[in-house]
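Researcher: We plan to redesign the surface later, but first we want a full-length starting point. Tokens attached.
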């Protein structure tokens, strides 16, 4: 028997009929008297391993029978095809070696609330959902780098300690920097513009910090953002770049993570249908939609359909509860219990949406031109679209000082937000940058900032200024959208939130 391993579970198809050794962790086990069913996770996948009493020593059979979840072990056995098995193959065990016999794994079998799971994040990362989410994240990040690296972009790393607030003062993290106050980067953009005027096409990709004081499902205090910045570009070209970029991420995830997306319950068919061009709306058109009859009708229809889904889910819950109480075998009870947890969380989500629906309707009807679109407004606009939608030309007063004023309407800026469809909301914010020295200085003064603090940034408008623009995409938001994950905190291994920093 090999010391550690010779094969990976995701490669078993190439070893059908052969003897292999795999090393991993016990995810679950079930005993059928003279046979044990062990599901093992080895990092590459999950596989059912069959231990027949007649095929191993009595001692080993007993050891394996009493192993707790998350015990680590290495097994050797013959691979055989079995459509019913996770992954389509199983292993008939002939030998095994246990590294750590885990007892009382704290996460299972009891169902837990999210607080417990977050406090035990070091272990919760091993759950099947988290495993799949981390794999999708891996693909998204690789696709991001591939896209820019193969489209003539140069990576410029921008600093994390800065003195320049890129996105307003209200959510800055201040830190003591040898007696001076510095802050953690909210965006790399201002620095990246220097890179764009040097290389033409550049991007930065790193952690971004914002002291988000409200608890939402879409905001972390530390998140990963990728930001391209391009010299000699127009707003339309920038949006085309964003479209191509998002399509390339979707393509990579569909190519590499179908089984993860299935496990996560993501809407794969809708993702497959996403193609260029995405929808384009001006901010003013978005306001007309929000305050007009179309949004009201949409929300009414949504309420009817949510209520009927809730009724179905409650019936299903009653059925499962009955099944659970009638079940004779422990594994049947466990299966029903797991389904009950899922249906309860679906019910909670439906109730949340039903509760929010009238709130959305009220907010939408009362929306006024000039306000920034909030989470609810974005939800409604994006709910009404089956592909991402660009909302462009926001009122100047609600946007950052560096956004370029529109030539024919000075009240709005040449910017866009990209909203992911089906109610998800913003994943990208981008704009053309003010490239006139005088206009930029005026904007800095209007906002009450000190021009001295932006002297190097203003210099970019003095020395070889060009039309340029860029955007930022939030990695965790994108993952939450693609996977259908309800809360952004699951889309990064160690989330940082207002009330969470320890693990
Ligand atoms: P929102 O309106 O949702 O607060 P924003 O307009 O403040 O987002 P931008 O400054 O445009 O965000 O940043 C670009 C992108 O970074 C956003 O479109 C989003 O994908 C992501 N992002 C922004 N803030 C956060 C956050 N606190 N947590 C996770 N991702 C974020
Ligand atoms: Mg924000
Ligand atoms: Mg926004
Ligand atoms: Mg934005």
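Model: Full-length starting sequence:
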């Amino acid at each position: 028997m090999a010391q550690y391993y010779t094969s990976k579970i995701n490669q078993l198809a190439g070893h059908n009929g052969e003897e292999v050794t795999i090393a991993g962790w016990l995810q679950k086990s079930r005993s059928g008297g003279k046979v044990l069913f062990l599901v093992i996770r080895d990092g590459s996948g999950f596989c059912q391993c069959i231990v027949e009493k007649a095929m191993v020593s009595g001692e080993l059979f007993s050891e394996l029978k009493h192993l707790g979840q998350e015990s680590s072990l290495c097994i050797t056995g013959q691979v055989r095809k079995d459509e019913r098995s996770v992954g389509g193959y199983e292993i008939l065990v002939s030998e095994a070696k246990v590294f750590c016999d885990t007892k009382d794994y704290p996460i299972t079998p009891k169902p837990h609330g999210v607080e417990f799971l977050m406090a035990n994040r070091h272990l919760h990362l091993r759950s099947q959902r988290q495993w799949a989410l981390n794999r999708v994240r891996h693909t998204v990040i690789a696709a991001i780098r591939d896209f820019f690296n193969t489209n003539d972009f140069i990576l410029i790393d921008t600093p994390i300690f800065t003195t320049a607030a890129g996105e307003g003062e209200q959510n800055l993290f201040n830190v003591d920097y040898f007696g001076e106050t510095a802050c953690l980067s909210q965006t790399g953009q201002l620095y990246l513009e220097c890179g764009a005027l040097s290389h033409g096409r550049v991007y930065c990709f790193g952690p971004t910090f914002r002291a988000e004081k409200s608890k939402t499902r879409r905001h972390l205090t530390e998140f990963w953002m990728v930001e391209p910045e391009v010299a000699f570009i127009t707003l339309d070209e920038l949006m085309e770049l964003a479209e191509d970029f998002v399509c390339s991420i979707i393509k990579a995830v569909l190519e590499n993570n179908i089984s993860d997306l299935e496990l996560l319950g993501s809407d794969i068919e809708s993702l497959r249908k996403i193609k260029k061009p995405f929808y384009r709306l001006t901010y003013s058109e978005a306001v007309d939609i929000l305050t007009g009859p179309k949004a009201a009708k949409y929300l009414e229809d949504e309420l009817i359909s949510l209520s009927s889904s809730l009724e179905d889910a409650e019936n299903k819950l009653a059925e499962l509860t009955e099944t659970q109480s009638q079940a004779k075998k422990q594994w049947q009870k466990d299966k029903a219990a797991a389904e009950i947890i899922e249906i309860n969380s679906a019910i909670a989500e439906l109730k949340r949406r039903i509760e929010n629906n009238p709130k959305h309707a009220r907010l939408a009807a009362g929306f006024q031109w000039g306000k920034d679109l909030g989470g609810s407004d974005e939800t409604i606009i994006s709910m009404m679209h089956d592909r991402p939608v660009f909302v462009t030309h926001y009122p100047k007063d609600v946007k950052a000082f560096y956004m370029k004023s529109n030539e024919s309407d000075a009240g709005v800026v040449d910017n866009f937000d990209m909203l992911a469809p089906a109610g998800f909301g913003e994943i990208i914010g981008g704009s053309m940058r003010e490239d006139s020295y005088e206009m930029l200085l005026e904007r800095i003064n209007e906002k009450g900032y000190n021009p001295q603090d932006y002297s190097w940034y203003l210099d970019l408008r003095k020395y070889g200024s060009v039309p340029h623009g860029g955007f930022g995409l939030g990695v965790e938001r994108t993952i939450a959208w693609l996977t259908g994950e309800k809360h952004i905190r699951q889309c990064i291994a160690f989330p940082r939130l207002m009330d969470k920093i320890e693990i």
